[in-house]
Amino acid sequence: MENRAGAGGNIGTDFVAKSAPDGYTLLSAGPGSLIINPLIGKVAYDTARDFAPVTLMARAPNALVAHPSFPARSVRELIAFARAHPGAINYGSGGSGSTPHLSAALFAAMAGVVLTHVPYKGTAPATADLIGGQVQIAFLGIPAVLPQLKTGRLKILAVTGLHRSPELPDVPTVDESGVPGYEVSPWYGLLAPAGTQRAIVARLGAETAKIVRTPDMTEKLAAQGAEAVGSTPEEYAAVIRADTATWAKLLEHAGLSAAEAR
Fold first, then answer.
1. In CATH, which superfamily holds the domain spanning 62-177?
2. Per-residue pLDDT tens digits for 195-213
3. What whole-number distance in Å separates Cα of residue 136 and Cα of residue 115?
4. pTM value?
5. Strand partners, 188
6. Residue 259 pLDDT class (50, 70, 90 cuts)
7. 7-60+188-261 — its CATH code?
8. Any residues with CB less than 8 A from the CB of 197 and at least 6 apart, and which?
9. Mean pLDDT for the stretch of residues 1-13
């Protein structure tokens, strides 16, 4: 495995897009570099043209968390507070156009409230400032917040999936807490360069899906706040198409142009 980090995942994604379609170079990625980045800026690859989806490995909803001093103890109380104090609630994210940013923007648009975005250069400094009380709320990955919840340095209001997290079974979803229809469930998928033989893609998809569904892997993913999936290539391709349309509408619904998202 080679971690080609940089440019929000664009560097590694572009590397695989230009690799030989022989089944030996694959991409593990999420909607950030495959969907969101192409929607809000120029990238050197085309997700639909340059990749052959192999399998959707897992989904990992985020958590809506707040500083302990924040008065709201639920999503409904958060909405009520935001409506009474428009723009007074600051939320942190790992950067403009990031999934946490767009998750909050979608929440604000669907809940009919005004929140103030505070972008950081990464999730770590955003989390640190949330713990320090410089921002009041954030949408963060469940694994990252579990230790902070246990020590009481953060409190959780909801999770962003359509179903409750196995790691946090007593925490409601945003959907069931007053914002019906809300869902943001970032996923992790496996892709091959376009032109890879169908037989190779099918074999890679079947074997990977079998692995992620094993009890051991399912347990390990659950410990990280993720749900094992293991789809067919066709099912994963459909997810990418559907989510591309969803995120495009999200940007428009939240009033974010490409320039603003960057």
1. Periplasmic binding protein-like II (3.40.190.10)
2. 999 999 999 999 999 999 9
3. 10
4. 0.79
5. 58
6. very low
7. 3.40.190.150
8. 21, 23
9. 84
